[in-house]
Amino acid sequence: MYRGVTEVRAIDDYRLILKFDNNEYRLFDLKPYLGLGRFAELRDINVFKQIGISFDTVAWKNGLDLDPEFLYAHSQAVSAPEE
């Protein structure tokens, strides 16, 4: 089933805490992708942390985004983060 991202938080070590539309939280590690094409731009932690929601997925201010199905498939379930 297709899942859309409703919230994102960039945390240290190039990881994202994602909340999907089924209220599930998942952790996605971007480090393995930082050497691929334009994703190398995200090595700058300040650029990495300029992330938000665009439609049903995550997008960075530099125009990069990732498919929500990819994010879901390549992330692991985690407990809801403490505020």
Could you provide a short overview of the structure?
It contains 2 helices and 7 strands. With 83 residues, the chain is mainly β. It has a single domain, classed as NE0471-like N-terminal domain (NE0471 N-terminal domain-like, 2-Layer Sandwich), CATH 3.30.2020.10.
Structure in words:
With 83 residues, the protein is mainly beta. The chain has one domain: 2-Layer Sandwich (NE0471 N-terminal domain-like), CATH 3.30.2020.10. Strands 1-2-3-7 form a 4-stranded antiparallel β-sheet. It contains 2 helices and 7 strands; from the N terminus they run E-E-E-H-E-E-E-H-E.
Q: CATH superfamily membership, which one?
A: NE0471-like N-terminal domain
Oligomer: single chain
Distance between the termini: 29 Å
- The CATH architecture category equals 2-Layer Sandwich
For the report, how would you describe the main beta sheet? 4 strands, antiparallel
Number of domains: 1
The counted number of beta strands is 7
Query: What is the CATH domain class?
Result: Alpha Beta
Mean pLDDT: 94
User: Outline, from the CA principal axes?
Assistant: globular
